[in-house]
Structures are given as C-alpha cells and as structure tokens.
Write a structure and sequence with these properties.
It contains ten helices and nine strands. It has about 325 residues and is an alpha/beta fold. The longest helix is centred in the last third of the chain and has 19 residues.
C-alpha cells in the first residue's frame, strides 16, 4: 500500500512490448526456511454457492499462495531494480505454466519520476458476443519499498492473483477477465495510473475493478474491503450478496481512500473495490508495514485464505454481470 498518495495528472506515454526485458540481471536469493502454519484443507463448499463459486473456494488455498509469497519475498522489488525484474520473470513463468497468455506492458512515467514502468498483464476472453461482452479487471502491485522485502505489502496480493489465474482455469465467464501486476505503486500508484490512462476504451466497458493489497496481515481480525471514493454502494451490495449466498466471512469498511491501485480506475468511473487492511487499522494490523521486518514469517495464512476465497468469488460475480 502506498503511503498516502493521491491521484495526480501525470503525463504517460504508452510503449508496448510482448516479452519481458532482459536488460536487468535476475536476483537469486535463498528464501526463508520458516513457514507459517497453513490450514491443511479448505472448508467444504457452502451449500448456497454456485458450482463455479464452490470450485473456486476449493481451489484457492493459502498453502499454494504462500509458495508464491515465499518466492517473491527474497529481496525488495523496487521499481527499476533487478529485484523487480526477477519478480516479473517469476509471474510470467507462473502464468505460462497455468496456460494464460501474458505480456509485459511498458509505459513511460512522465514528470520527475521519469522511467519505464513494467506491468505484467494477462487476459482471457469471455463467452458473451462481442456487442454484449464486458470486462472485469483484477490487480495487485508487484513492487515493494526499498526498506523491506514486502511479504504482506504486497507479495500476498500478487501471489493471490497468481493463484486466481490458476483457479479460474476451466470456469467460463461471460465477460473478459484481465489480471494486472502493477509496477510503481509505492512511487505514487504509477503503474495503475498509466494502465488506466492507456486504455480508456477498455475502462468504458469495465463492470468493475478488484484490487488486493496487504491481504495477509498478522494481526488482522477481519476479511474486509473498501469502496473507491467515487464508487456507488451498488457494487458493495453485490459483494454483500456474495457473502450471504456463499457463507463466507467479510465486511465492508466504513472508509473510502485512494491509497492503492484501485484509485485510478475509481477516478475514471469504474466501480472499484480494494481488498485488504483498513487504513485506519494499518498500524495495528501490520506493525511491520514498510519495514525490513515485512517478511514471509509474518503472513497470517488464515487471513490470506479468507481473502483468497472472497476475492475469487467476487471476481466471478463481476465477470458474469451484464452491466455495472
């Protein structure tokens, strides 16, 4: 999660590439040996869930997500550094193994923060006819701050997005699904702002954007989400309906903020949801925020499991909606 950044009118220039750049060396560091205690198996699918929802709940296991968190937590993943380049390569390899077509989207950050942003983008086509098919976007920032390796902030979100890609295989949706691992969030939400600016036509047909940021806080007691500052309550009500139908636990926070990658989409009129620690509870839920102690052993697997389930079924709900 970024430290209080607001939306700004940064000028971005789009540059596209179909493969990851090899300009930076890949960092290889031994991962921590200690692993948090992980639930041995998910709870049985709730009786009110649809077949697709129950399948996603079964597939989204914290034990799998934690493997990605461990792999991404070997070094800081700062924008324009070898650590981030290594993380990009890891995500691309995981998506290729899962059968998704993925590429690195290179965007130029303007102003004093000039430089190339490298978002990882994966997309699959929905089943509805072209005239009726909408888009749902799910994202997480892949970068971290220089001071810390960023296990909870935000390897938990990035790892969950990888598992979401794998878990969606074989489950059709009427709408297109786009997954984005954003660069430069910690520098001012740069990757998400650049992506939103570069794709106005896609945003016009998007039924929603789901962001996941810091979803494994050790002291968290709630699986929660916030609405974007400009997002109507309708999308929050849709999530509440998912909770009632599936029996999953979760709540909508009584706060709206622009401190993570949902903000650019929210500002563009796309209904936006931010899953993760409440800003007002940040220091309590994650005392290692933006510090060298934000390491793999601090991740709460039970909280991670709860977020993974709720994010997955929420995405499925939006991916089958005919309109906003």
């Amino acid at each position: 999660m970024a430290g209080g950044h607001l939306l700004q009118g940064d000028t971005m220039q789009l540059v596209t590439t179909s493969v990851a750049s090899a300009a930076m060396p890949i960092v290889r560091v031994a991962a921590p040996a200690a692993a948090p205690e992980v639930p041995t198996a998910p709870a049985p699918g709730p009786t009110g869930a649809s077949e697709g929802e129950a399948l996603l709940i079964d597939r989204m296991r914290a034990s799998n997500t934690l493997e990605h968190v461990k792999a991404l937590n070997v070094a800081p993943r700062v924008w324009k550094t070898p650590g981030h380049a290594a993380a990009v390569e890891y995500v691309l390899a995981q998506l290729k193994a899962a059968g998704w077509e993925a590429h690195v989207e290179e965007l130029q950050a303007g102003g004093w923060q000039g430089g190339t942003l490298r978002n990882v983008v994966a997309e699959r086509r929905g089943t509805a006819p072209d005239a009726d098919r909408k888009l749902v976007i799910a994202g997480a920032h892949l970068d971290s701050v220089p001071r810390g390796p960023g296990a909870n902030d935000n390897a938990t979100g990035s790892g969950t997005l990888i598992e979401l890609a794998k878990s969606l295989n074989g489950i059709d949706t009427r709408n297109d699904v786009r997954l984005v691992w954003f660069d430069g969030e910690e520098e001012g939400l740069l990757g998400s702002k650049a992506h939103a600016k570069a794709h106005p036509e896609d945003l016009a047909r998007a039924v929603g954007m789901i962001n996941m940021d810091m979803i494994g806080s050790q002291n968290a007691t709630t699986i929660g989400f916030s609405l974007g500052q400009h997002t109507s309550n309708a999308v929050g009500d849709a999530v509440k309906g998912v909770l009632l139908r599936t029996g999953l636990k979760g709540e909508m926070y009584d706060e709206r903020h622009s401190r993570s990658d949902h903000a650019a989409f929210d500002a563009a009129g796309v209904p936006a949801l931010d899953f993760g620690v409440a800003v007002k509870n940040l220091e309590h839920d994650d005392p290692w925020y933006h510090s060298p102690k934000d390491t793999f052993d601090k991740v709460n697997p039970q909280v991670l499991e709860g977020y993974g389930d709720l994010i997955a079924v929420t995405l499925l709900e939006l991916a089958n909606r005919a309109s906003r």
